[in-house]
Amino acid sequence: MTISTMFSTMLVGMLRSFAVFMLTLVGSLPLGMVVALLKKSRFGLVRVLVNAYISVIRGTPLMLQLLVWYFGPFYLFGMNIGNWRFPALILGFVVNYAAYFAEIYRGGIESIPVGQYEAAEVLGYSKVQTFMRIILPQVIKRIMPSVTNEVITLVKDTSLAFTLAYQEVFSLAKQISASQTSFMPFVIAGVFYFVANYVVEFVMGRIEKALDYYK
Amino acid sequence: MILQMTNIEKHFGDLEVLKDISFEVDKGEVVSIIGPSGSGKSTLLRCATFLETIDGGEITYMGEKAAHTGSDGTTVYVPADRLRHFRSYCGLVFQQFNLFPHYSILKNLIDAPIHVQGRSKEEATTTAMELLDKMGIADRADAYPYQLSGGQQQRVAIARALAMKPEILFFDEPTSALDPELTGEVLKVIRQLAEEHMTMVVVTHEMPFAKAVSNRVLFMDGGVVVEQGDPIEVFEHPREERTKQFLQVFER
Ligand SMILES: Nc1ncnc2c1ncn2[C@@H]1O[C@H](COP(=O)(O)OP(=O)(O)OP(=O)(O)O)[C@@H](O)[C@H]1O
Ligand SMILES: [Mg+2]
Predict the structure, then answer these.
(1) What number is the average pLDDT over the span B21-35?
(2) Cross-chain CB nearest to B164 (options A121, A123, A133)
(3) Using 50, 70 and 90 to split pLDDT, how confident is the model at B252?
(4) Packing angle between helix A169-180 and helix A184-210, nearest 10 degrees?
């Protein structure tokens, strides 16, 4: 097998890794905000549940969580869901990353001085307006470095999708390497992750720059 | 009468911060509030501007009751939508300015008029530019707060409050966070507003300013109004011993 055939065989894996990456971001970035806000809920029970969710997610390996999402419905509820592999995978990733993003958001929200809320309140902004117009834009700027870190971790974590026998780039690399007795597929996979993260850093850097107009 | 606060009580846990405070502010009046640290001056302003809720007493704006204590001893505020209406009567200028750092100076002034009061962008911008002009910072309309000196930021904060066209403007130590050489420019605009008969309540440690500009001075200590009256009277012939002692510290 030539390098270019290896590459084109692995291309589909790259697309699959990218799909996991994008779907996880699209799901977990907003879900994390919901979780962060629920954590400040008026209702004690909601706060307890959210805190439990965050500690379980952070305290167990993502790989284990993926297995639970995949096998859980059958072993826990005797359900047999058709085509469950991919939804389970994305759910596992989204629910996991939402917990981490929630903590980042919470830190960001808490770092905004109380004077910002008070100024908005006296000016008559509603609670929603205060959050959307005054607080959130400042939070986004403050959390960009932590979000970048998390997104870079996600790029690498997509390889955990192999747990559910999802043929992403790393699984393919292992298979091709074994069948061809070649180290090359790993080099290709490595370059793929590196380039992907390079793009992430570039894009996030651009966003940070765009938010640099104020301090 | 713009504001009437009657028998106001406020406590934080066991700490009684305001004990039966009553005072009123007439249209066009400038009232200074002086007093030692911890006497409850900020808390009083925060109750008047609805940042804190009172535990007893009555708050009346323009003859309309915003909060009162019923016969059963519980204090009730008007419903939230009515409270917004009361909020629109008052503006507050903070010691720490609290400008919105992500908004330009102009946007700091027009955002609430547009999105809270529903005014048109053109009208809000015209009003804002007039105010900035008056504050002597019209040329900084496109700058961001961090690019301005403390004195300029506080003048923007005053303009932001005025852009809402409040009936009464409260100041909580507007110059305490400023370097001494910058206090003058802020006091000057407050003095200018006083000349235009803007109704104002100013918590301040600037005694000469309070004496020169206000129509009335309130001396607070330990959560009560110890003495109030004409500034010349209070500053030169204080009746209460506590007032004398407090003012002596500022003599030299
Ligand atoms: N949110 C709060 N929780 C608990 N105690 C508070 C709170 N706000 C104020 N206090 C207490 O209430 C008392 C009065 O505080 P306040 O800020 O009104 O005083 P002040 O007259 O404005 O003083 P200063 O001149 O230092 O600004 C102080 O003892 C303060 O510690
Ligand atoms: Mg104070």
Answers:
(1) 96
(2) A123
(3) low
(4) 160
